[in-house]
Amino acid sequence: MKTAGFFIVFLLYFSSLVLFYIILPHDFQITYLAYIALISLVFSVVTYTGVIFVFGKHLAWMKENIRKAMDYIRNPHMKYPEEELFSEFFSNVMEMFRRNQEDIKRDIAKRDEFIRWLTEEVNRCSYELNRKNKALMEKEKNIALGHLVATIAHKLGTPLNSISGHIQLILSNNRLDYDTKNRLTIINQELQRIEKIIRQALDVLILDKQKTEKINVKEFLSEIIDFLLPSLQKEIESIELNIEPDLSVIHSDPDMLREVVINLVSNANESIHGKGFIRISAGKFSDGMCYIRVADNGVGISGELREKIFEPFFTTKHKGKASGLGLTICREIARVLGGDIVVESTVGKGSVFTFSFRDKKEGKI
Q1: Total Cβ atoms within 10 A of residue 135
Q2: Is the CB of residue 238 less than 8 Å from the CB of residue 228?
Q3: How far is residue 163 from each of residues 154, 158, 167, measured CA to CA in Å?
Q4: How many degrees, rounded to 5, is the angle at CA 254 between CA 253 and CA 258?
Q5: How many CB atoms lie within 10 A of CB 44?
Q6: Of 213, 250, 268, 240, which is closest to residue 356 (Cα–Cα)?
Q7: What pLDDT, in 10s, does the model give residues 62-112?
Q8: With DSSP H G I counted as helix, E B as strand and the rest as coil, what are the percentages for the chain, rounded to 5?
């Protein structure tokens, strides 16, 4: 089969060259046939070898693929080395893609974490700056308030002392009837209370050291309620007292605490229009801080006013009925006692004031 193919190629080359020389315009000699035969033989060998090589290679590839196709038809689950190589290459590409994706996600997470940290730091710095600015403004106001209270105390001191002296002279008269003497005694006690309040305000505003005494909480608050009961509105149906068992005794400044409770209860009384209640409770937070809480169902305080009620001279009451110093003094007392005072309020439903302070051991400042 291969010899016949080679002979056919040889004949094709030989015939073509003979015709080419016959057609040429020159004499054709018999000796040319030998040259033509030799040239045809060389061309035939080269051509046949090339054709056999190319066709042989492609035929072998076609046969192999046909064999694989037939094997796959007979057994669809069969795998070839080429497929495993391609699968491994594809797996490597996918693994590289997955790693790159994880790196990108990790970088994004780090960026988000940095942005979150930066935001928190900015917010914290902004909060601290606002807090310090407010503290500075409050300090300036307190200095001005201290000067004002000191001036008022100095101006009031002389007439109060004079009034108290005259009352003492009148009380020394044995001819006074019992009712007059009793009323003069009450007036003298109230004058002493006014002097004490002025001294208390001065002590707080100039950050004087407070005294520390052992206080029975129930007796202390009950005494204040009894003192305030005559001044409460008739419409107030109840004033409740609730003390947690773990706060039977505390160590603090009783005069400062009394000033705070009286202020808060008086404000609650004035905020109630119609029937209402006042609840006083005392206890301890989880961090050990003590608290006294005064709640009412009065008119409440709006959000805008809640930011201002602790400022000096600010009041929501009618002009002349309040000085606007009550809550300011309460906040200063809270600061001196190592605590704070906060308010929660809803317009039309009432307010809750929570005064917190530290329980100090007796004898310590």
Answers
A1: 11
A2: no
A3: 15, 9, 6
A4: 125
A5: 20
A6: 250
A7: 677 677 666 666 665 555 555 555 566 667 777 888 888 888 989 999 999
A8: 65, 15, 25
Residues 137-162 have pLDDT tens digits of: 766 766 676 667 667 776 777 787 77
Q: Give the residue among 310, 353, 313 at the shortest CA–CA distance from 332.
A: 310
Residue 286 domain-assigned (yes or no): yes
Please report whether residue 132 resides in a domain. no
- Domain end, chosen from 74, 90, 120, is at 74
Helices (DSSP H) in 172-253: which residue ranges?
A: 178-205, 217-228
Give the position of tokens 């988000």. 112
Q: Is 140 helix (H, G, I), strand (E, B) or coil?
A: helix
Domain containing residue 260: 211-357
Quickly list H helices, 24-80. Answer: 32-74
Q: Tell whether 32 is covered by a domain.
A: yes
- At residue 263, the 3 state secondary structure works out as helix
Q: Which residues of 218-240 are buried (b: 16+ CB within 10 A; e: fewer)?
A: eebbeebbeebeeebeeebeebe
Report the C-alpha gap between 43 and 49 in whole angstroms.
Answer: 10
The CB density around residue 209, as the number of other CB atoms within 10 Å, is 9
- Report whether 355 contacts 341 (CB < 8 A): yes
User: Residue 267 sits in a domain of what CATH number?
Assistant: 3.30.565.10
Cβ neighbours for 338, distance < 8 A, ≥ 6 positions apart: 357, 358, 360
Helix (H, G, I), strand (E, B) or coil at 215: strand
Which pair of tokens denotes residue 150?
């000191």
Answer yes or no: is pLDDT of 365 > 50: no
* 299 neighbors 348 (Cβ within 8 angstroms): yes
Residue 177 lies in a domain: no
Structural domain ending residue among the three candidates 74, 109, 128? 74
Please give the tally of structural domains in the chain: 2
Q: Which residues contact 197 (CB under 8 A, 6 or more apart)?
A: 259
What residue has token string 């917190």?
356
- For 171-195, what is the mean pLDDT? 81
